Amino acid sequence: MTLHRRSLLRLATAAPVAATLLASTPVVHAAPPRRIRAIAFDAFPVFDPRPITAVAERLFPGRGAELGQAWRTRQFEYAWLRTLMNRYQDFWRVTEEALVHAARSLKLELSPGGRAQLMQAYLDIKAWPDALPTLRILKEAGLRMAFLSNFTAAMLDAGVRNSGLEGLFEPHLSTDRIGAYKPDPRAYRMAVDAFGLDREQIAFAAFGGWDAVGARSFGFPTFWVNRLQVPLDELGLAPDATGSGLAELPRFVLGPAA
What we know:
- This protein has 2 domains: about 40-50 and about 125-255, 3-Layer(aba) Sandwich (Rossmann fold); about 50-125, Putative phosphatase, domain 2 (DNA polymerase, domain 1, Orthogonal Bundle).
- The chain is globular and about 55 Å long.
- Helix content is about 50%, strand content about 10%.
- The chain has about 260 residues and is of the alpha/beta class.
- Helix 7 (about 155-165) links the parallel strand 2 (about 145-150) and strand 3.
- A 6-stranded parallel beta sheet has the order 3-2-1-4-5-6.
């Protein structure tokens, strides 16, 4: 192939410019996607909290939902405030303190017996209907699984026992281990340390939108189990995927063939 003199001159002139551009432009190589090898679960993608509100409604007819909402709000406020103040107490105590304050703020007369019934409801929780079949699929696919939750280990043990989920999970990663509640990054790091994997290899299944954002911020591939169909919190990040239940999780971690 013969090049004319004018073409050679154009190439010679362009070469230094091209070399300069190549030298100043970083070369980005797309990293191959990492295979998900483990899943960390918040408690409520697996356990159904609705019976707790049902107990509140039985004790306070017509006001159970209101009490349940105030209780949940204060629960998380207390957890986050205790983490910020470095005054950690376990989630069982935080939950009871939140209940007492919520009832008082709504001017509801909470008897010792009523308080005991509402607290016991947390130990009576059972899995959502889609939990056991989905967890079996994931276990059979070779995925390691553990709860990464603000719940105490005793609360998680009760839910596992009530739901027949024994043998599916590795030891619980309760925030009691590190004395700080999610979304503190120290809480999410427990999964990295326990599984011995990179964070990109650990999927996180969240129930609350704030938890999905916290896990995504930490670097986990995150699936938001948005069972209540609520809008995502405006925190500048979004989960990698969202589903209305656990049945959609295998496709996220195993791929379209799952």
